[in-house]
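Deviations from the work plan: none for this task. Representative record:
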Amino acid sequence: MKNYMGIVWDRGFFHANDLQQCIADVCTYAKRPVLNVVDAYRLMKTSGPRGKSDADVVLSKGLFISQDIVAVDTAAANFFNQAREMPLDKVGHLAKGEELGVGTMNLDKLNIRRVRI
Amino acid sequence: MLKKIRITVSVLLFSLITLYFLDFAGFLPESIGVLTDIQFIPALLALDVVVLVALIIITLIFGRVYCSSVCPMGIYQDIVAWLSKKLKKKKRYTYSRAKTILRWSILGATLVAFLSGFTFLLGLLDPYGAYGRFVTHLFRPAYLAGNNLLETVFTSFNNYSLYKVGIYSLGVFSLITALITLLVIGFLAWRNGRTYCNTICPVGTTLGFLSRFSLFKIRFVDEKCNSCGLCSMKCKASCIDSKNKVIDHDRCVTCFNCIEVCNRNAMKYTLVGPKKQEAVEAIPTYTYIKEDKPIDESKRRFLSATLITSLTAGKLLAQTATGSVLSKRELKRQTPIAPPGALSFDHFREKCISCHLCVSKCPSHVIKPAFLEYGPGGMMQPKLYFDHGFCNYDCTVCCDICPTDALVKLTREEKHHTQMGKVNFILENCIVYYDETNCGACSEHCPTQAVYMVPYKGSLTIPETNPDICVGCGGCEYVCPAVPYKAIYVEGLTAHNTIEIKQEKVEEVVIDDFGF
């Protein structure tokens, strides 16, 4: 969902005016992605988004794909939680997105295919 | 034939070196940088023995072919002279006496100034450096604007092969200097060909001295010559005395115009032969008469006036700078930040001729010419600023391309450990402190985490700095959203340091489960 921020010129406005709500709002834009992919091959634990060295990342080798943008973000947040604490209520835009009807956070209701390679 | 070769080579090299400065999309191969490395003053300052020896040997064999074919300022003058010929059908040059005292005193003054740390004079007069500034401040903005205009046109036809680029102001002083130099040298070239090469240019004086002893020289074939004076009318350097059949080889730039125009084959470009040498020696060559040409006096006055005013202005500015104190809100950088590879202000000021190649080529647009920040001796030398970007941690473009090695070549590893400046945090300006709102942008951009967030009130975090591991990249300063004054900025260092980065242990975290 955060990727949507790149479609506007002035991201600073989002940061200055309730970031989480802005992210949820921009996801209601008319053009929706057909498929959402979260690349969790290497996740950054600390010193993000740039990082200092390999010590900041974890080679987790994950990949999440879904048509539902809120669901895939929720799954990714839960996945991340295993590397470092990431409670879902901290990631505000998920709940706000669900409120606006962008998607669902309820992963139990979805048909998820878990694949190990 | 010789003239044709000269024109082909010179136009080719000129176009390539100009394109090199202009190119923003990187469509030229990197090896094109060699064109700047073979210029005389850069090779001299970089102590590039191979190039220097090659240039000296070439001059000792062939004469001033550097001046006619390699030096971009020379070809600029040729273009102006050619235009002048197109508009003035009966363009005739006339022989004039050598301005030996003027030439050598300018060379001497430049040398003395350089040795006293006043490299500004060398940078001002160096033909390559001056041409570099023409392109950077005058041609390039036009080129970029043209690109932006074309992009609009292309996009309206749904062709997206071009993209718009930002055109940034690079300082009024350098722009005005470049403009004045362009107009002065252009005017001299319009009127009388290679005047600058033989009166002001220190490279011209040096190579001219060497070319007195060159093996190949343009000579009169006395039996065939009838002193018609055609050669003299075409000589851009005004060095042919057709009446006495004498050529001033000191000033001849081997452009071969004379050979081309002579319809009696009375001019040849040949090796010295013992017989010929005797004949030439019998005729008196140059007489040093102090000619009181008004324009030369004004040149001298302009140069000395600039020197004196800039020295006094520099002194005044230095006095005011020591008196000022950082006010509570406003921040002002006290020491400029030299680009990576500069090593120290002394090293940098000594070697930089302000050609502004780095200014043109920096992919992050963080380099611009200083005014008096380095002192009067360092006017127009580049410094970093973070209005439009920050210095990319992994980028070494400026060091790679600097032709004088004012910015020494750094490997990526060396660049990572180079400290160009130190971070300063101003608590009063920070929006976490002032507005009690979450931020952390500075820390997010810091490549070494010299700026890191620590817990503040409630769930807020506020930046804390460790200047020892700061590299001075300006990421924090660039991204800080605080208005009107930034809450974090980089203060320059007079000498760059090497930082030590602690190697962190890589924690073995194995994630085996999906987590949901």
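The CA atoms of residues 32 and 97 of chain A lie 13 Å apart.
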